[in-house]
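> call design_seq(struct)
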């Protein structure tokens, strides 16, 4: 049987001392052929700008942002109730009466998303000289939130103070969630098209072409709603006096979506000679 032949560069590698092996540049394809194994592909490179090597594929990352202003179509508000009683039972009865009156008024006005939150009671103490503090009564508090349309918000806030509420905690106007989500989908597509156009321009300037999409990321991942809620300092209604309607303006809200596209690049087509 004829002995297999060994290429000269392989024989040189076998005879060289170990320290010299690191100084010998072995051809990758030839080494794979000698070991009867496929050559490994060159690693990809990721860059924020054009990342194209001589004849080697790479990645490029480009970003784009799309914005849109949406009219505020709903208003959310939070009102507070505070009562006082000589004992816990009296405070609980007073709080239940006021909250029932307020909820009945809001339902009659067509308010949505009615919710009672943060109901609680605490003792009211009286200082006694040379003796422990004495409980003189109990205070009960609750907050009620609701949603309405911007045009109805002033009337409902004023009416709430006349029907059981003792303070206004905050209010603000914004688009509905489904309107924000629909706008966000359209903005994501718009920003993606802009990012792809920028990537093609960058690749062409670097003598390459876009070969495919590696990944696309959205920021933020959820719906964006940067609106400023109108905050009102709590106003305690000490006497049943009429509350004049409050002026308000719904305004607009801005939805913004940023897209980061990571694209695979390949060398550009060589023009014919």
């Amino acid at each position: 049987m004829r002995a297999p032949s060994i290429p000269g560069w392989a024989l040189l590698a076998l005879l060289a001392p170990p320290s010299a092996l690191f100084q010998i540049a072995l051809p990758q394809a030839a080494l794979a052929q000698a070991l009867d194994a496929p050559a490994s592909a060159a690693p990809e490179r990721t860059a924020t700008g054009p990342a194209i090597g001589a004849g080697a594929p790479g990645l490029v990352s480009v970003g784009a942002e799309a914005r849109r202003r949406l009219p505020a179509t709903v208003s959310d508000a939070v009102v507070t109730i505070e009562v006082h009683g000589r004992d816990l039972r009296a405070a609980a009865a007073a709080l239940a009466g006021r909250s029932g009156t307020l909820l009945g008024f809001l339902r009659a006005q067509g308010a949505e998303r009615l919710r009672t939150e943060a109901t609680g009671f605490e003792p009211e103490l009286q200082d006694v000289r040379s003796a422990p503090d004495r409980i003189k009564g109990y205070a009960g508090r609750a907050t009620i939130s609701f949603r309405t349309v911007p045009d109805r918000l002033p009337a409902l806030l004023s009416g709430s103070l006349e029907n059981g509420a003792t303070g206004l905690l905050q209010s603000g106007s914004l688009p509905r969630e489904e309107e924000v989500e629909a706008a966000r989908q359209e903005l994501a597509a718009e920003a993606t098209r802009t990012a792809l156009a920028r990537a093609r321009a960058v690749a062409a300037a670097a003598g390459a072409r876009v070969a495919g999409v590696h990944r696309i990321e959205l920021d933020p991942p959820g719906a964006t709603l940067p609106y400023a809620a109108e905050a009102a300092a709590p106003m305690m209604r000490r006497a049943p006096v009429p509350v004049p309607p409050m002026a308000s303006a719904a305004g607009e809200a801005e939805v913004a979506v940023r897209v980061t596209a990571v694209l695979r690049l390949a060398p550009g087509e060589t023009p014919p000679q």
